[in-house]
Each structure stands twice: as C-alpha cells, then as structure tokens.
C-alpha cells in the first residue's frame, strides 16, 4: 500500500479475487490501526506541503498523472476488469473518464476564485474594503466503492490535490488494485510525499479511525445508505460528502421515441452488471405504449451477451462476488413469490446473474424500494405523467432520473416535480459527465461531486476586510 509516498508491505494480507472464476489475482496488505495513525500523522505534514504548492505545480502534477494513465491505458483497463465486474469495454471507458477527471481537476485548480465584497452595503462600512478567498480544508478521508474502482477514486483525489489538500484513500476491499495504480501515477507525476496515501484494509479495522480522528477535516464517502448513516453518526464535527446510491426511475410517455427509450434504458439497467448508482431500476411507461415498450425491452434484453468480461464481444460480466449474486436472486425470488411476473432472466450461475425484467411488482417488495445494485429492472404501467412522478418519488432515494417525451411542457413538469439531484431528458438516469454537479437528495446523499463542485466542498471561504484610515484612496 502507499502511505505518504512510501510503498509498504505487510505479512497480514487481503486476497484480491477475480469474481468471474474465483481465482486469486494477488494480495494486498491488510492495514492495522497503527498504519492509519501513521498515515494521518504524515498527512498533517502533507497538508502544509499541499497548501503551499503553487497552482501551476498542482496543475502539472495532475496533468502528468493523467498522461501516465493514458500511456498505460491497457494496464489500467485490464486491472479494472480483472478485479471487478466490468467488461473490458466498460473498463476502457472508465480509464478514459479517469484521464478526463484528472485533466478537469488541473483546469479547475486555476479557477478557485473568491470575489470582492462591498462592505459599504451596511451603514458604518463606508471605510472598509475587502474580499473572500477559498482555502484548503485540510486532511480528507476518502472511502470508495468497488463499482468504479479508478474513476471514483480520481473524483476524490483530483479535486483534493487541485485545492491544496492532503488525502487518505481507503479503497474497496474487493477492488484495491486500481487505486494503487492511481497512486503510482501520482508518484510518477512528482506529487510531494505525504500528500497522498492509499491504504488497503478492512473497514471493520481501520474505518472508524479514518472517520472519527480529529485531524480528519472531511470524509468523502461513496457507498451504501446504511454505511453512510453510520459514518454520519460517528464522524463528529467535520465536513461530510456522501453519495449513497439510488433506486433510479425513468418515465416513458406515449409521445416518446420507443426505440430510443428501449436502447437507452436497457443499457442503463444492465451496464456494469447493474452495479451502478445511476442504474435504471424502475421504468414507468404510459399505458398506451406499455405493451409495445415491454415487448421491445424484453427482446433487447434477451440479446444482451453475458460472459467472459475480458472479451470485447461481452455486454455484461459477473457481479462482484457470489454473495451479491445470491442476494439479488433472493430479492427477485421474494418479488415473484409476492406476485411479480418474471419476463426474462432470474437465473444465477455463481457470481453471474442474468439480466432480469420484472413487472407487476408489489410495492412492499424489497426490490421495489431499495437499491438492487444488480441487473434487475422493474416495469410499471401508469395512466399519466402525474402518476409516474408520484410513484417515482415514493422511495427514500433521489439521485438521478430520466424521462422520454417529445413534449417540452411534460419535460419541465418532471424537472420541477421529481425529487432528484439530476434529471435526464430523452435519456436514461444513467448519464453523467465528470464536470457536472453530481449528487442527490433524501437517502441518496449529501453534497455534490463533479470536479468543480467537489473543490467547493473541499475548501472554505475566508473573509478579509481592511478598515482604512483614509477612505479617499478607495
């Protein structure tokens, strides 16, 4: 693992397993509490170093790290696919996004602005002039998930470095290798030691220290709602940024282009084996086109190729492990037992779970209101847009949504009334660029990621006011 610029090995290790065949890829160190405390102590010095780095040096490091990844594109993509669930095509796309995230971070480093403040807006302020600027928050603890093991780490590390902070990353236990490769890229790029650590270990051992330590000034977490709530209870007085998943709805109205809607939502439901916080989970289709949409959706789902994730012909690989596939299987079985109709899929083979389509799912089923995080989608027939919006909002999540319609008034009604952090018009919920504000409402989290917006979260404003003895110089 990478602690404050040093590569450290340990006798106690964690096995990294390929979920496709259960074979050992390699091992990584299992960090102890002492390792985390050492990383925090080093980061206390790293904060001072990072804050004093001129902006052009931060930009250079970020650009050179991006270039290193581009030069080793195949190695990064292969690692993503081997340790996780993504097909090699999906992994290549993630590497491209990571490169863009770091380059965006370099660009946004030059745009961390303040502004002047007219102090004479209040009586008695006539002799004052001033401004505010933004300063780094300090040490950031980043806890990242398995489903985007490179780019979601970059979304925390890039803005942290751009804004002059030190950062300690605890990657997902199942997929630590991509984060370690990212540390390698920053080492190559000349990032000063002590600014970045990537600690591999079990959350049960090292998580609480990262979350509760008083020197940690911000926790940036991407993961499940239950874990996020637990972190919030423990963290104390520090900044929290959390993306906690969703149960994303998509609305398809009768005036929509059905072919486009099917293609977009099938991809949105099953990419990365459905292990995607933006993945399409519920689709509300106006009843006039429900039969047509359903038939086309099921046919397209049957064409989805499941198999070897290293093959460029494969559309979908396994889930992250067999336990997750078994959980998805149980949720689907519960829905069918309670009356849901299984249209296609519902078959598990080890860590693989076939793309699955359900309809008539009762509202009290787990899959109806929780995040499935697997390749399962629910189709519902609705009378109109009002009903679709009401049902879309009836869960404790609100990350992103989609609506397919050719009526601009319908689009704006959905924009206004859907309780989400983002809404995609004539696209599925599964659309994101790395420069947009990304986050949700309700149980989907706190704050926003996306490079510019993460930098806002990772900095604080400081107000400066000069009281002048000679106001005539103003």
UniProtKB/TrEMBL annotation:
Signal peptide span: none
Domain Aldehyde dehydrogenase: 7-464
InterPro entries xref list: Ald_DH/histidinol_DH (IPR016161), Ald_DH_C (IPR016163), Ald_DH_N (IPR016162), Aldehyde_DH_dom (IPR015590), ALDH-related_metabolic_enz (IPR051020)
Family statement: Belongs to the aldehyde dehydrogenase family.
Keyword tags: Oxidoreductase
Name of the protein described by the UniProt record: Aldehyde dehydrogenase family protein
Family matches, as PANTHER family: ALDEHYDE DEHYDROGENASE (PTHR42991:SF1)
Record has Oxidoreductase as a keyword: yes
Keyword Transit peptide: no
